[in-house]
Amino acid sequence: MVRIMTPGNLKNSKAHPLRLETAFTFLEMMVVMTLILILAAMAVPTLRTTIIRAREAVLRDDLFTMRKLIDQYTIDKQQPPQSLDDLVQAGYLRGGIPKDPFTGSNKTWKVETEDVPVGAGEVVPGIVDVHSGSNQISLDGTPYSSW
Predict the structure, then answer these.
(1) Contact at 8 Å (CB) between 124 and 138?
(2) Which of 69, 75, 84, 123 lies most in the core, judged by the most C-beta atoms within 10 Å?
(3) Is the pTM above the cut of 0.85?
């Protein structure tokens, strides 16, 4: 509310003639606070979903990269890696084993091992696939461990 002091309303006031009096009423403050709370309540679920989608994108990218490097290692070395550390030691994963975005650790990756044919009649056991170690369910309803 803005009130301009004029000579007519200065009779009982000690205010300066050109001074503006401004203030918010309690009701106005409550309306503003209510609007802010409503907007925040709508934004929080969207923020949470956005964070989960970002983690899912990181997981997809990490899985794609590690699977590609497992295949490349197997082709180059003529045998599959025995552990994810083999990829790091051979220089395929230069930054180290990535952290699983849902478990927060690089030790929780679940690896699948199989006998891989490497030559004429030769098979060698080793890693052929990798999955997340998380037991959480993705936004599309599938467990991250099945990705």
Answers:
(1) no
(2) 84
(3) no
| In a domain? residue 5 | no
Q: pLDDT grade, residue 11 (50/70/90)?
A: low
Helix, strand and coil in the chain, % to nearest 5: 45, 20, 35
Domain assignment present for 7: no
Closest CA to 126 of 78, 90, 86, 82: 82
Let me know if residue 115 belongs to a domain: yes
Q: Where are the beta strands (DSSP E) in 12-147?
A: 20-22, 110-119, 122-131
Task: Report how far residue 83's alpha carbon sits from residue 135's, in angstroms, rounded to the nearest whole number.
Answer: 22
Residues of 38-77 as b/e, b for ≥16 C-beta within 10 angstroms?
A: eeeeeeeeeeeeeeeeebbeebeebbeebeebbeebbeee
pLDDT (tens digit, 9 = 90+) per residue, 34-91?
A: 999 999 999 898 999 999 999 999 999 999 999 999 999 999 998 999 999 999 999 9
